[in-house]
Write a structure and sequence with these properties.
Helix content: 40-55%
CATH class: Alpha Beta
Oligomer: single chain
Largest sheet: 6 strands, parallel
Radius of gyration: 16 Å
Distance between the termini: 10 Å
Shape: globular
Number of domains: 1
């Protein structure tokens, strides 16, 4: 089985460092416009791009692991092309991903202010170990606030609440107990609506649970994969 890790809004491969180091032969996806190529302007476009990439690489038995926006891409992929996917892992996720207007406005203001964007990210990732936190911040600042803004706008338009029960794949839903962006009730909704879903709540973690509590997240994914074989 091939694990493909799909990052959240405005992020690159560094988002998944803990996971790609742990899982052999896994891959962190670099989405278009992050930084090369043209940004997609919807979850729909990102999903179609990913499918094209998977086919180009001739990957089979894939497990899509998505965080936040990445989880939206994974859900839509599972809904449209479930026969091509072995399983889904949805982290910091929801069937709808509305974004506070204040967050979008703040990112607009930070578009030309790298220092302010960096400070914003430092506050966001304060629970992540320093060495990984700095790597992710540096990578995300290089991509720019405009990329994150684009992706969050895509998230804000995403809504599969009336369709998510059509996902027939084995699915693991992971959420931090202190996640305010995609709270536990979002994860519970997914776990309740997706017929073959299981849920793991990681105590003390926020939206970046995969970076804040990598041991717990990796072990949950590993146990889930074991249940598929």
């Amino acid at each position: 089985m091939k694990l493909l890790f799909i990052p959240g809004s405005g992020h690159g491969k560094g988002d998944w460092l803990y996971q790609t180091e742990y899982f052999a032969d896994s891959e962190a996806i670099v989405l278009p416009g992050h930084p090369d190529g043209k940004l997609c302007t919807s979850i729909d476009e990102y999903t179609e791009w990913l499918r094209g990439y998977v086919h180009q690489q001739q990957y089979q038995d894939i497990i899509l692991v998505g965080h936040s926006m990445g989880s939206a891409i994974a859900q839509l992929y599972g809904l449209r092309y479930g026969e091509e996917v072995k399983a889904l892992v949805l982290i910091g996720s929801g069937a709808r991903l509305r974004v506070l207007p204040a967050t979008l406005s703040a990112l607009e203001e930070m578009a030309n202010d790298k220092a302010a964007f960096g400070k914003f990210l430092e506050e966001t990732y304060q629970l992540v170990a320093p060495e990984v936190r700095q790597l992710v911040i540096d990578e995300t600042v290089r991509l720019g606030a405009g990329v994150m803004l684009n992706d969050l706008v895509c998230c804000d338009k995403f809504d599969v609440m009336d369709k998510v029960s059509d996902i027939k794949l084995p699915t693991l839903v992971i959420c931090g107990s202190a996640d305010e962006m995609t709270p536990v009730k979002y994860a519970t909704y997914l776990a309740d609506k997706i017929p073959a879903a299981t849920q793991v709540i990681v105590e003390g973690a926020t939206h970046s649970v995969h970076m804040e509590k990598p041991k717990e997240v990796n072990q949950a994914i590993e146990k889930f994969i074991g249940s598929l074989t």
